[in-house]
Structures are given as C-alpha cells and as structure tokens.
UniProtKB/TrEMBL annotation, chain B:
<dbReference type="GO" id="GO:0050567">
    <property type="term" value="F:glutaminyl-tRNA synthase (glutamine-hydrolyzing) activity"/>
</dbReference>
<dbReference type="GO" id="GO:0070681">
    <property type="term" value="P:glutaminyl-tRNAGln biosynthesis via transamidation"/>
</dbReference>
<dbReference type="InterPro" id="IPR003837">
    <property type="entry name" value="GatC"/>
</dbReference>
<keyword id="KW-0067">ATP-binding</keyword>
<comment type="function">
    <text>Allows the formation of correctly charged Asn-tRNA(Asn) or Gln-tRNA(Gln) through the transamidation of misacylated Asp-tRNA(Asn) or Glu-tRNA(Gln) in organisms which lack either or both of asparaginyl-tRNA or glutaminyl-tRNA synthetases. The reaction takes place in the presence of glutamine and ATP through an activated phospho-Asp-tRNA(Asn) or phospho-Glu-tRNA(Gln).</text>
</comment>
<comment type="similarity">
    <text>Belongs to the GatC family.</text>
</comment>
<dbReference type="GO" id="GO:0016740">
    <property type="term" value="F:transferase activity"/>
</dbReference>
<dbReference type="GO" id="GO:0006450">
    <property type="term" value="P:regulation of translational fidelity"/>
</dbReference>
<dbReference type="GO" id="GO:0006412">
    <property type="term" value="P:translation"/>
</dbReference>
<dbReference type="GO" id="GO:0005524">
    <property type="term" value="F:ATP binding"/>
</dbReference>
<keyword id="KW-0808">Transferase</keyword>
<dbReference type="InterPro" id="IPR036113">
    <property type="entry name" value="Asp/Glu-ADT_sf_sub_c"/>
</dbReference>
<keyword id="KW-0547">Nucleotide-binding</keyword>
<dbReference type="Pfam" id="PF02686">
    <property type="entry name" value="GatC"/>
</dbReference>
<comment type="subunit">
    <text>Heterotrimer of A, B and C subunits.</text>
</comment>
<protein>
    <recommendedName>
        <fullName>Aspartyl/glutamyl-tRNA(Asn/Gln) amidotransferase subunit C</fullName>
        <ecNumber>6.3.5.-</ecNumber>
    </recommendedName>
</protein>
<keyword id="KW-0648">Protein biosynthesis</keyword>
Amino acid sequence: MSDLTHLTISQARAKLRGKEITAAEITEAYLSAIERANPVLNAYITVTGDKARDMAEASDAKLAKGEGGALEGIPLGIKDLFGTEGVHTQACSHVLDGFKPRYESTVTANLWADGAVMLGKLNMDEFAMGSSNETSHYGPVINPWRRSRLDTVVMPTTHQGDGGFVSAGGTKTARTLDNAQLVPGGSSGGSASAVSAFLCAGATATDTGGSIRQPAAFTGTVGIKPTYGRCSRWGIVAFASSLDQAGPIARDVRDAAILLKSMASVDLKDTTSVDRPVPDYEAAIGKPIKGMKVGIPKEYRVDGMPEDIEALWQKGIAWLKDAGAEIVDISLPHTKYALPAYYIVAPAEASSNLARYDGVRYGLRVPGKDIIDMYERTRAAGFGREVKRRIMIGTYVLSAGYYDAYYLQAQKVRTLIKRDFENVFTAGVDVILTPATPSAAFGVADEDMASDPVKMYLNDIFTVTVNMAGLPGIAVPAGLDAKGLPLGLQLIGRPFDEETLFQTAYVIEQAAGTFQPEKWW
Amino acid sequence: MSVDLQTVKRVAHLARIAVSEEDAERMTGELNAILGFVEQLNEVDVSGVEPMTSVTPMEMKKRQDVVTDGSKATDIVANAPATDENFFLVPKVVE
C-alpha cells in the first residue's frame, strides 16, 4: 500500500484509468502516511479524512464509467491560504481563528472539478510572510531532508568456517544522517515538505516573492510560479495583491505541468486574471530545446554565494548547451534593487489587505474598552511578530509625507526591473537560467536569521525579481550539495510562456534526475 | 530615514495594533534595520520613469451592471464573533 504514495501523478493517473488501483486505495495510503509522519513533520494542520474518502469514492464511480477528469482520484494537499468551503482556512494565523469560508477559491474549485481529492490543509508562514515556515501559528514545518556526511567504512575481513572469505574486507562509503532539523523554506513550507515526504501527490502553493520556488528548492521538488494573472486569485487570502500568484509544487516537471493546467483558468471573479486560454502544458514536455537562447544574468553571481551553488549553475548551463541550446551572457542591471523595492511594495499592499482583520467580521475578537481598543487588542493578539512588522512598515511607507519617498520610488524602480527583462527578451532570449536560492535549507531556529529580519529576506534574492516583473518562474531540483541537501535551479520565461519553462526544466530534470530524502521519520 | 520610538507608537496606532513599551522599543530597531536596507533605492535614477501600476498591460474587465450574486446574509455573518439577526455586533460607538 505504501508504495502507492510513491507514484507520480502521471503514473497514478495511468493506473487509475487502467483500473489497476482505485482512488480509495491511493487515498487511504496517503492518509496513513500522513498519520505516521505528520506528528514529526507538521506539514498538515488539518487532515480532512472523511471528505477525502467521500471524494475518492465519487472518483472511483466516475473512473468505473470511464468519465474521470484530468486529476480524477489524485490526492492533493492544499495550502491554508486557499479558501475551502466549510474547511479550516486561516492563512495559519491566530487572527482567523475558527474561520471556515462559505465559498471555495477558484483554483481549488478547478481542481475538484477535474476530480482531485483533498487530503487536508497545509501549514505555511502566517499570511505567507516568511521564508522558513517558522512564522506559522501552528509551529514550524520540518524538512524531510537532513544533512548527511559521507563516511568511509572499513569492512572487516570475515571467514566462514573452514571455507573461503565471505567478505574480502576493503572500504565502502556510506551516508550518515545528521539529527539537526532543517526548515523546508517558506512560505509554502507545508506544501513542499508534504510533497517531498510523500504525504500528497502534489500540492497547491502561492508565491509573492519566492514562496513556491524557494521551498521547492529546499526540498528537492518542482515548483512553478506562473505569470501574474494566469491563476485566479479569487478566494485566496490576500497578502500583496499585485504580486500574489498561485501555482503547484510537485515531484517532477510533468506533474507540475499537469497540476498547473487544472489550476489555471480565466475567471470573471478576478479582474486581474488574464483572458486567454490555458494551453496543454504537458505537451511541451519532451520537445527539443535545440537552438533555444538561454540567458545567464551576471548580476545573479552574488558575493558569498556557496561554491556548490555556482557549480550547480555551471552544470545547468552545460546540460542545456549539450541539449543544443545557445548560451548567452545577459545583464539585468536593476536586479539588486528588486529585494529592497519588494520590501516597500509588499508590506504596503499587505498593510492595506490586512486591515480587514478587525475582530468584527470573522476570526478572533479580544474585547476592549471601546471599538478602537477592541481593534487594537484583537490585532495585537491575533498577528504574529513578522506580520506586525510588515504591517508597520507598510503603514509607515504609505503614511502622509512618506508616500513619494518610498512607495512611488519603489514602483518606479519596479518599472525599471521589468524593463530589464523586456530588453533581454526583445533581444531574442527565450529563457533565463539562475540559481533558485542563495543557499541550501538551513536549521530550524537559526540564530542569525532570528536576530536580523533582513537576513531572512535575502533568501528571496533570486526569486523576487520575477514577482516584481510579473513573469513566470520555475524551480527545478538539479543536484545535492556536499552535505547531501537538494539545490535547485530557476528558469524565468516570457509572460505567459510557461510552456518554455516546462520544456526546459524537463531537460534539466532528465540530466539531473529526481531526488528523494532518506526516510527517518 | 529612520524612526524613533514616538513614530513607532504613532504608526502602530494608525495600523490599529496595540503595542507595549517593550514591543515598541524592539520594533524601532527592527523597522530601522528594514528602512536602512531599502535606503539603497535612492541611488537609482528614476527621472522620467513611470511608476508601475499594472504588471501586465491589461484592460480592466467590465461587465453588465446587473445583480449576479446576493441574498446570503447568513453566509456573510456565519464566521463573525458576535451577531444578532444577520447584523454584526460591535461595542457601542455612539452615545
């Protein structure tokens, strides 16, 4: 049974359609895997077992009649940011205590319409603000990956009775796992951890500054942030509306393509959702990249970047070159300003979006001596430290007298960041290759990051430019570092050209292989 | 630019977040670290650059001005901490 959890979505899809397995069986396999692993990994904050079984039963009925949808019977985990009707939806914040929406987000509704099965809601950084999944009201998520070291083990020479040698001795190498707990990245840390640890076949996630791609890179999974406007934001708890996008985290490139096809849609309920048909992303997989122009931006070679990451980047370049791509050096001169501009734009939008949590319409209410006191006490008790920090920054930069100096300046810089990409694409570059993160996964309760918020923010240095420019970006695992931790490469594409990302990411995946953590949980 | 303790308290009140003296002091340091980090934006020459208003050029979708949804007062108040007959209850605001 437990092997069913190791099937990719495309493999499970074939077996379900071929009636080799049932949706009920694969759903039970995931539910028992979650029961065993979740006390340790804390990836799920709610498991919807009964709902999952009902959905699986309905899927089996459809599959029996040969009527299954694109994801019929595939068990998925849903990030707690997505509104799910009648089911816990709190953006992992205390301020939304007890909130169960009376509606379903467009993205999840699309998945259920295609036959997917909901296993439960996944842990995340509170309101998607964080890069380590440690700001969740429900505690940190643990990365199924651990550091390891390669040991040389001396094999003793052994005899068997009077006969010959059984072992001739010599040495072999073995990996020894370290006990230190690592973060899965954030904010979609629950999604990444659950996909990597085989606790769901795939997961929904969201990305405002890197929240899909950074955790995917930290867990050896594939994560794509589509172009702004490709997935409807309707029914997703808002963080920074001009940057937020939903996308999948999956175990391989093909699965990510299958999931995005179902998640993306044209939606009248989100005026920023784009009015263009969703292509068949899976069809792009396996197409040759011969003659494709791949840009390598020199500004992504940052000071203090670990050697492993530079080496991985070079490997990625070599793989694409071997596959017939043309490698060109490019410049994106405003790259270094993307992160500071983001830390004005995102908090400003967040301070406005999060004004709605006032103890009146939903969630937590802390009584006060009058209504203002009630608002202030409710928000003081309901929001965690990081969320308060960002609301405060946002309120400050939008306050009278500071708007021009901060917000307007940041939005102008954003125009320049986008222009950098436009210039490169106009010059004929099809896709840009960069590292996904400046490091591998770090430890839970890392002291450096805890003492300086800016250090934590630097995790998004390679991913945030993509959100600022509204472009699609995919993180694909490309190797392990010296300590045995996964590292990812990022591909950035033209607006609405997710197909090229899947096509190119697949070439990297073919060369690098896929990566699974050694099971310790 | 940097903020002092008084400014932090004023901003906290604008953001409707109650802060203790200790919170405000800690936040002053943290906010100044972030403001110090974003300061580098001032070195960018933005003369003649339009601020971004929409990341993808798109026309605002419009639809017929007709009622397409509604009559769900019970749904709307379902998650409220205090309600009475489909009204949200709040502390007294007018004497």
